[in-house]
Specification:
It contains four helices and eight strands. The protein has about 180 residues and is an alpha+beta fold. It has a single domain (about 25-175), classed as Thiol Ester Dehydrase, Chain A (Roll), CATH 3.10.129. It has helices at about 25-35, 35-45, 55, 90-105; strands spanning about 1-5, 15-20, 60-65, 70-75, 110-125, 135-140, 145-155, 160-175.
Length: about 180
């Protein structure tokens, strides 16, 4: 929820705020330990597992999943703007990293997770509020037992490509921490 206040501020700028709520991230992580990546992501997609806090923070939701491929949707707001009046590239990178990583996750057996070890992003077009909803699609390009590779793209609802990424993920056993 966004609310607008107008106390005196620099150059008459309006003060805005955003309230973010989320579920206990440990509950989400625990729900994934005994499921394959595909089972876990499917449960998340259907609301049986709460989304991780980052999704609540940046207004992102998982909208499709199959083995080796996932899609996230996000509608950016002003809270992710950079100093020059457009969506910060870090949001695009976050969405691409999530899409590539979760695509890899969808190929893993129960008891295994992943950690991004490298991502290369190409920013192709600026993103603004008027861009509307954007979609990050991740695909596995080479699954692996120790390292897996994926690519992701970010586009608007018209299919205009906004950014692309390639990523590598370290496959790790999940243990009680």
């Amino acid at each position: 929820m966004t609310s607008i206040d107008t106390p005196p501020g620099p150059a008459g700028a309006e003060l805005r705020s955003k309230t973010v709520t989320w579920h206990d991230p440990q509950a989400t992580a625990t729900a994934g330990r005994d499921r394959s990546g595909l089972e876990f992501l499917t449960a998340w997609l259907h609301g049986e597992v709460p989304a991780p806090p980052i999704c609540e923070l940046v207004n992102t939701r998982l909208v499709a999943v199959e083995t080796g491929e996932v899609v996230f949707a996000c509608t950016p707001d002003e809270s992710v703007y950079n100093p020059i009046g457009m969506v910060h590239g870090g949001l695009a990178c976050t969405l691409l990293d999530s899409a590539a990583g979760c695509a890899v996750h969808s190929t893993l057996p129960a008891g295994f997770g992943y950690s991004s070890i490298e991502i290369k992003v190409n920013f192709l077009r600026p993103i603004h509020l008027h861009t509307g909803e954007i979609h990050a699609r991740g695909r596995v390009t080479k699954p692996g037992k120790r390292v897996a590779f994926a690519e992701a793209d970010l586009s608007d609802t018209n299919g205009t490509l906004l950014a692309t990424a390639t990523s590598s993920c370290l496959i790790i056993p999940l243990t009680d921490q």
